[in-house]
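Chapter review: from sequence to fold.
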Amino acid sequence: MNRRNAPSRYPACRREPVPACRVTLMALAWLTIVATSGCGDFEKTPFGMHMTQDQKAEAKQNWNAVRGDVKLQIVRQQLDAGRLDEAQKILETVLSTSPQDARAYVLATRLRLEQGRMADARSAIVMAQQLAPTDGEVQYYGGVVAQRYGDLNAALAAYEAAATASSNNAAYLLAWAETLSAIGRPGDALALIESRLNDFDDNVPLRVLAARAARQLGLKAPAVQYLREALLLARDDALLASFAAETFVWAGAWDEAFDVLHPMVAKADAPASARYLLAEACLACNKPAAALEAVAPLTKETDADAVALLLAARASLATSRLDEAVAYADRARRLAADSADVRLLCAYLAMRRNRPDEALAEIDHALRLGADPVAPLCLKGQTHERTGQTNEAREAYLAALAANPDAAAPQRLLQRLNERVGVAPTAASVSTAALANDAEPCTETGVTP
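The token string follows.
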């Protein structure tokens, strides 16, 4: 047999190509090991053994730069993971070999902030600012340190500089806008966000902050719109959903509030605050049965709370179940005798049951507890009207107008009283615009007689 043509007892050895990802991972692992080793190791590498002195110096400088970058990346990872001791060990070596690297001092600032060492954090960021005064990250952490020290004006200037230097960084823009709101300039914060929002079309925190600023300014429509957009981007965010629901209720966006709250309340561990807000939304949408269902778990004898009982009373009242409303209100009063809202609802229910003395006593109690005077005084006037005391009623309505000349309810009630008893309207009474809102509740509890 020709041995050259005979089959080998061993299979042919084939070289399989190494996947690119494996090469990358191997190279990264090798680089990390080398980069975290001593400085003199470069002389022992294959590269360092066949170079002139000038080549070696230049290569070593580049080599140290690569090693420094890798180490800084590791420090960042350790800080992000909360491993502060490990981060400090590596950072100390970087600062000793690269004392002119501003990035190292930024990381030192982060580390000291995490450790609560504010003086050291300030020293580190001052060094970074001296080395790289126009760098966005340096400016940002300068703002963080200033804010921790309570110097909001310095923080504002630093965040503005950071956002200007790194215009595509949403976090810097957010910090700038947050600080504007914090120093009482929500209008400027909202204008700033609106000017850049199209550049960050998937950023939820910016939209939430815009909604907060709009709320501070009393702008209901923009607040609702920004939160609609945020919910589309992060529907499963529980904290966002809670804030959105609260804002929707505040803005009177009842349908949106119901849509957000109903799934929240359907869960077994739904927070009480979500049940309160859902009940408010249901009452506003004329769904008293749904409101009662929302707070039902919080009205049981064993673990009832006053807010839930108050809402249950209003829901019962909306369905003309007066006795049931009284029962809920009495329980609420036993739990929260110092609540002006509870006292005011009890006053209204007493008036409805033709118990004027009880109603007036509850109204006076609510006023002593610091209730906004308009609603109690309106209710006081109505109670006097029911007993034929028109002069006392008129005095109560005028007192309500004196407390708030723009309030529609006392203007409307005074107008009706004057028309009924044949007295011409006084200078203190009615504006046409105020009469337009004929459905305004007469009490702060939302009960309409």
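Two observations follow directly from the output. The domain at 235-333 is CATH 1.25.40.10 (Serine Threonine Protein Phosphatase 5, Tetratricopeptide repeat). The longest helix spans residues 53-80.
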